[in-house]
Write a structure and sequence with these properties.
The protein contains three helices and eight strands, in the order ββαββααββββ. The chain is of the alpha+beta class and about 140 residues long. This is Secondary thiamine-phosphate synthase enzyme.
């Protein structure tokens, strides 16, 4: 078994920002030189998550709208009374309860085994942020 680790860095520009990182993951897999195994992705943040879904502009807008409505920022959240870093971000942490901080994707013949309509998204829940990181851990042969 061989291993390869990489980091994908994202800059987010909106409070909720959905960024397609599929090409970055494919590049990391190509750099690894491995042909079969698994890619594990980990968001290194408590208010940013990962998701596999369809990349379609209107759907992505719907996703953002749904997240804003599901847990509104202006709720009466205790975490916002005395913030740790000056950010009223309780809603971001609460949204994270329903999302994934990691994804694992198999690959074969050096290619991710995603479905036809699947893309990998980094989802910012507490932006904008100048630097966010996704750890890419690849294991295989």
């Amino acid at each position: 078994m061989n291993y390869h680790t990489a980091t994908i860095t994202c800059q987010t520009t909106r409070p909720i920002d959905i960024i397609d990182i599929t090409a970055d993951v494919r590049s990391a897999l190509e750099e690894s030189g491995l042909q079969q195994g698994t890619v594990t992705l980990l968001s290194r943040h408590t208010t940013a998550c990962l998701n596999i879904n369809e990349r379609e502009e209107r759907l992505m807008q719907d996703m953002t709208t749904w997240l804003k409505r599901f847990i509104p920022k202006d709720g009466d959240w205790l975490h916002n009374i005395e913030t740790i870093d000056g950010r009223d971000n309780a809603h971001s942490h609460l949204l994270g309860l329903f999302m994934n901080s990691s994804e694992t994707i198999p690959f074969s013949e050096g290619q991710l085994m995603l479905g036809k309509w699947q893309s990998i998204f980094f989802i910012e829940l507490d932006g904008p942020r100048p630097k966010r990181e996704v750890l890419v851990h690849i294991q295989g042969e």
